[in-house]
Write a structure and sequence with these properties.
The structure holds two protein chains of two kinds. Chain A is of the alpha/beta class. Chain A contains 22 helices and 14 strands. In chain A, the strands form four sheets. Chain A has a five-stranded mixed β-sheet with strand order 11-10-14-12-13. A four-stranded parallel β-sheet of chain A has the order 6-5-4-7, sandwiched between helices. Chain B has eight helices and four strands, in the order αααααβααβββα. The longest helix of chain B is centred in the N-terminal third of the chain and has 14 residues. The chains are: A alpha/beta, B alpha+beta.
Chain lengths: 508, 184
């Protein structure tokens, strides 16, 4: 039974309690393990029963369905209306390539023994036997790019930190997963926290950093509990501390909580926040790799980036690099969200198309109405119409289409969506979350809301649209970071792909 | 040098009768947090979190105490406190309801849920119900985007929150005891 926050949000704790109580009442001995989620979120709470044929899935199991499941003999895999068959054979899971998510939903995230029994800490063991430069070379050769959204090659960042001479260096994990439509970081931290700890430890050993921080958003209290439990277990077993596995190498880390500022997902604002300041964006250069946390050389990577490293060290760079297309190597944990029938986590190689994701995996909209638009890459990502659903997920292909893959979140809207309202919301969000450092973002977003309001009110004819486009150009080229620089993506894509929503508003 | 003089003046100005609005228990809680955490590198956010965790919000009169513990100016502490949406400068209800306004929840009815929540609780965002039990806050993504609309009540995430389910959750919350951690 998952302990994942999404599963808990639809009653997993109540179901687990009902199962324990019903088993006790019937005198049936069971061992109840609270794993992470398999990522088939429409089936949550998903109960899996271990059998000789593999794990048998039942879902979604509300607490009041539990006595019926016992009547059907589900503890030995009995037939029931909620039975989904062997979990691994469920079509949604079967076709995925789970590398980073290999253990999520399978192991007990509180158990270091379970982690070790499922190939855990093999990457660190491999890293301890190599020179720092060799480790960095492996990460570079794997083609791994930053999964937080910017897609900067991880190995090049690490190389810069390795080459910097300093008495203290840091590894910072960006776990400020603020994009709407994303939760892959959360699922890893709750479902397999050791893999993140292992990835950060490898980053420390590769670059000479001895201290790590996970900057976690406050909205994820369950992830904090899971991470802190795992950190304590890793420390107690000698995987963190002054003498990691007897190697003489030092690395330790702690979790720090954010406080509800979207901008702190931007790496330099995050570093400011970790230093105890307002989360305002820094000018670059100097790069964080040279002048990062407390002015020291700092590796700063997203959760998924760091969690992908242990596998690369264990299986080799080639193993990872053989997945993907073009310059987008490896796999991407994609999140299918919003108005989607089968929402959840799909990890597969780059190159999968939106259409495959929306219909083959996602099963179409939740409402049953036609899908009209999808927003890919969070609140700063473009809205794409049906005509672009054949785009393969690939950083460069999306960039050429004036869209972005970002952190892999896909938000689905059916035909009831008002795209003018979505465009207005994008500006409103930017105004709410702007750090205030640069003028195009701070002032431009507020003016953007006003211009869209005037455009929709029909005032000043076509002049408002020209003004909006001009404002977007100023924000794109004049903003200090991606918040102001990319807010025009959702605004202009809504305007360009769905002009009828803006015209209709004018006439009505 | 000028900075030091200013800092000293602010600190001196801030001591004395201004702390009178903190209860003895609140004052003790703030002092304990500062004593425990002030040596951490980048201690300000952990301290603000811990104060809010124990008092329920960050009282205005805690700011000088925190500033002194960290050798910062009042402006620096106030600047950080006011930058982050999560930190509250005013007391809130006994329970906090965070309602997601982000796109994935919008796609499955969050706008209607927001209207229902405001109407049924009789408050706008940042408002507290007349009985002092519930504060409604907006939030931009709770990471439950495949099971929206989502709300978080205190630390508990809730998914697929229809207006009817919202009413049931609120009724259950009203019936629950308050968070024991708060100093009152």
């Amino acid at each position: 039974m998952p302990r994942d926050a999404a599963a808990l949000s639809v009653g997993a704790d109540e179901t687990a309690e009902a199962i324990a109580a019903e088993a006790a009442r019937r005198g049936i001995a069971i061992e109840l393990v609270r794993n992470g989620s398999r990522g088939m979120l429409w089936l949550e709470p998903l109960v899996e029963v271990v059998s000789e044929a593999g794990r048998i899935a039942y879902g979604p199991v509300a607490a009041d369905a539990v006595p019926g499941l016992f009547d059907a003999g589900f503890t030995s895999g009995g037939a029931h209306a909620l039975a989904q068959g062997v979990t691994e054979d469920i079509r949604f899971l079967q076709r995925q390539q789970r590398l980073t998510f290999a253990r999520v939903g399978i192991t007990d995230p509180r158990s270091l023994e379970d982690y070790l029994a499922h190939e855990g800490y093999r990457g660190l063991t491999a890293a301890l036997g190599r020179d720092p430069a060799e480790i960095v070379a492996s990460v570079t050769a794997s083609g791994l790019r930053g999964r937080g959204g910017a897609a900067f090659p991880a190995g090049i960042k690490w190389q810069t930190v390795l080459g910097a001479a300093a008495p203290q260096k840091y590894v910072v994990c960006n776990a400020d997963e603020g994009d709407s439509g994303t939760f892959s970081d959360r699922m890893v931290m709750e479902g397999d926290p050791f893999v993140l700890i292992e990835g950060m430890t490898i980053a420390g050993i590769a670059t000479g950093a001895t201290r790590g921080y996970v900057y976690l958003r406050w909205e994820y209290p369950a992830a904090r509990i899971a991470l802190e439990a795992a950190i304590a277990a890793a420390r107690a077993a000698g995987y963190l501390g002054d003498d990691i596995l007897g190697s003489g190498r030092t690395f330790d880390l702690e979790v720090r909580m954010g406080a509800g500022a979207y901008i702190c997902g931007e790496e330099t604002a995050l570093l400011e926040s970790l230093e105890g300041k307002r989360g305002q964006v820094r000018f670059k250069p100097p790069l964080p790799a040279l002048h990062g946390l407390f002015g020291k050389p700092t590796v700063i990577n997203n959760v998924i980036t760091l969690a992908s490293v242990p596998l690369i060290l264990d299986r080799g760079a080639d193993y990872y690099a053989r997945y993907g297309m073009g310059r987008s190597r490896g796999t991407l944990p994609i999140q299918l969200t919003g108005n989607i029938k089968h929402g959840g986590l799909v990890e597969c190689a780059f190159g999968v198309t939106l259409r495959e994701l929306l219909y083959d995996y996602g099963g179409g909209s939740l409402s049953g109405r036609p899908i009209r638009a999808v927003q890919v890459g969070g609140p700063l990502g473009a809205y794409l119409p049906e005509s672009q659903f054949d785009l393969p997920l690939d950083y460069e292909t999306f960039a050429n289409a004036k869209a972005m893959v970002g952190h892999g979140g896909i938000v689905v809207f059916d035909d009831t969506v008002d795209m003018a309202a979505q465009a207005r919301y994008a500006m409103e969000f930017c105004a709410e979350e702007s750090c205030g450092k640069c003028t195009p973002c701070r002032i431009g977003s507020t003016r953007g809301v006003e211009v869209i309001d005037r455009l929709l009110a029909g005032g000043n004819g076509g002049g408002q649209e020209a003004l909006l486009r001009d404002l977007c150009e100023t924000m794109t080229y004049g903003s200090l970071c991606a918040l102001g620089g990319l807010t025009p993506y959702p605004v202009l894509s809504a305007l360009n792909h769905f002009p009828e929503d803006f015209v209709h508003a004018v006439h009505s | 040098m000028i900075g030091i003089i200013f800092k000293a003046r602010f600190t001196m100005h801030s001591t004395g009768s201004q702390h009178a609005t903190l209860t003895l228990a609140e004052r003790a809680a703030v002092d304990a947090v500062c004593a425990r955490l002030h040596r951490l590198p980048g201690a300000l956010l952990p301290i603000l979190h811990a104060v809010q965790e124990s008092v329920g919000h960050v009282p205005k009169d805690a700011v000088p105490l925190i500033a002194r513990a960290l050798n910062l100016s009042l402006a620096e502490v106030h600047g950080v406190l006011s930058f982050y949406h999560y930190f509250r400068k005013q007391p809130c209800g006994k329970h906090v309801v965070h309602l997601c306004r982000a796109e994935a929840c919008q796609a499955v009815g969050a706008v209607a849920l927001e209207a229902h929540a405001k109407h049924s609780l009789g408050v706008d965002f940042h408002g507290t119900t007349a009985d002092g039990l519930l504060t409604l806050e907006p939030v931009y993504c709770l990471g439950n985007c495949a099971l929206g609309p989502s709300v978080m009540i205190d630390d508990k995430l809730e998914g697929r929150v229809s207006p009817q389910r919202f009413d049931r959750l609120i009724a259950a919350t009203r019936a629950r005891p308050i968070r024991p951690a708060w100093v009152l």
